[in-house]
Design goal:
The complex is a heterodimer of chains A (about 70) and B (about 260).
Chain A (H helix, E strand, L loop, with lengths): L1 E4 L2 E4 L6 H7 L8 E4 L2 E3 L14 E9 L2
Parallel strand pairs in A: 1-5
Antiparallel strand pairs in A: 1-2, 3-4, 3-5
Chain B lengths: L4 E3 L2 E3 L3 E3 L7 H11 L3 E8 L19 E4 L7 H13 L5 E4 L12 H13 L3 E6 L3 H9 L6 E2 L13 H10 L5 E3 L5 H10 L3 E4 L1 H4 L4 H21 L20
Parallel strand pairs in B: 3-4, 3-10, 4-5, 6-7, 7-8, 9-10
Antiparallel strand pairs in B: 1-2
Helix pairs in contact in B: 1-8, 2-3, 4-5, 6-8
Classes of the chains: A mainly beta (about 70), B alpha/beta (about 260).
Chain lengths: ~70, ~260
């Protein structure tokens, strides 16, 4: 199924969760925050939240800034 | 008694807050942060780069050593600023944020009505809010009344290096609010930083002045010294300015 991750379309396996998406992207959950359709997904829910076709996912982290 | 800066119930020895943007490379940034003696460093919140396993800022800035202060740089609306803070907190940061709501691309001056509104919402959400604002005493008071833990008036436009353009307004802000006043943005050289502290400001926040210097590590050290010197000069109490001379050597005992 197709979702949108950080603005770009991406295919993921049916049954994917936020946790499995982060694993696939090799992103440590400790350093990111995730929004699903503009709602923040709590870290404790990464395993439980299943992704659906068309979901818009934002994954953010910290970068240099002033 | 130790001379410390307290923000949101936390105490810091350094009055210099520094950014982590625009360094030529991570090793230079790491050495500059060390040289600055800063305990609070600002970071931005952005999309993760999915294309390549890029080095992460957090590989270089140890959150155990530094208090990371997420900013809302690049936010032009109250909504985006609040959203950014909520994401920063979820990504593992503490509750202290540098709030900016930008009003104009060219000047990067703050949109103060949106800033105040965002500050109120974030205070309600339990954040320790440090707002980047104009050198406007009325707005500073409004932000204090909204529950902000400090006010951070600009010295001059972000990245301009013009120094403190309106020291009189900064002085009035210092008389107007009780929360710490941190000059944020516009500092260019060490003397600018010293002036901020001599005026009585509680701290200075800068990024470009250090990161953009020819030798960022040496400039970081200069800023550390300037902030310390400016603070001591303020505490020592300067002499009044006078138009005419007063002799330093005694007039008695002259033999000529």
């Amino acid at each position: 199924m197709e979702i949108v991750v950080n603005g770009d379309p991406r295919g993921v396996a049916p049954g994917s969760t936020v946790a499995s998406l982060l694993r696939e992207l090799s992103l440590p959950a400790t350093r990111v925050a995730v929004e699903r359709n503009r709602e923040i997904v709590r870290k404790s829910e990464y395993d439980a939240v299943a992704l659906s076709t068309g979901d818009r996912i934002e994954i953010v982290t910290f970068v240099g800034g002033g | 008694m130790a001379d410390t800066l307290t923000l949101g119930g936390r105490t810091f020895r350094s009055r210099l807050l520094v950014g982590t943007g625009k360094y030529p490379d991570y090793p230079t940034m790491v050495r500059a942060l060390e040289a600055s003696g800063a305990e609070i460093v600002t970071v931005a919140v952005r999309r993760v780069n999915l294309d390549r396993a890029k080095e992460s800022l957090l590989d270089h800035v140890d959150p155990k050593r530094y208090t990371l202060l997420p900013n809302t740089a690049g936010c032009y609306t109250e909504e985006d600023a609040v959203r950014t803070c909520l994401l920063a907190r979820e990504a593992g940061m503490a509750d202290m944020v540098k709030l900016e709501v930008i009003g104009d691309e060219k000047t990067l001056f703050p949109d103060t009505p949106a800033l105040l509104s965002a500050a109120k919402r974030l205070v309600k959400e339990g954040f320790v809010v440090l707002p980047y604002t104009n050198d406007d005493p009325i707005m500073a008071k409004r932000l204090e009344d909204a529950g902000c833990a400090a006010v951070m008036p600009l010295a001059a436009p972000i990245g301009s290096g013009l120094g403190i353009r309106n020291p009189y307004n900064i002085r009035i802000i210092l008389e107007t609010v009780k929360v710490p006043v941190i000059v944020d943005a516009g500092v260019g050289s060490a003397s600018d930083a010293a002036v901020a502290l001599e005026l009585g400001c509680d701290g200075v926040l800068m990024n470009t002045a250090i990161a953009g210097a020819k030798n960022p590590v040496l400039m970081a050290e200069a800023m550390r010294d300037a902030v310390a010197a400016g603070r001591k000069s303020f505490l020592a109490g300067r002499i009044p300015r006078k138009l005419y001379a007063t002799a330093s050597s005694p007039l008695d005992g002259t033999f000529f």
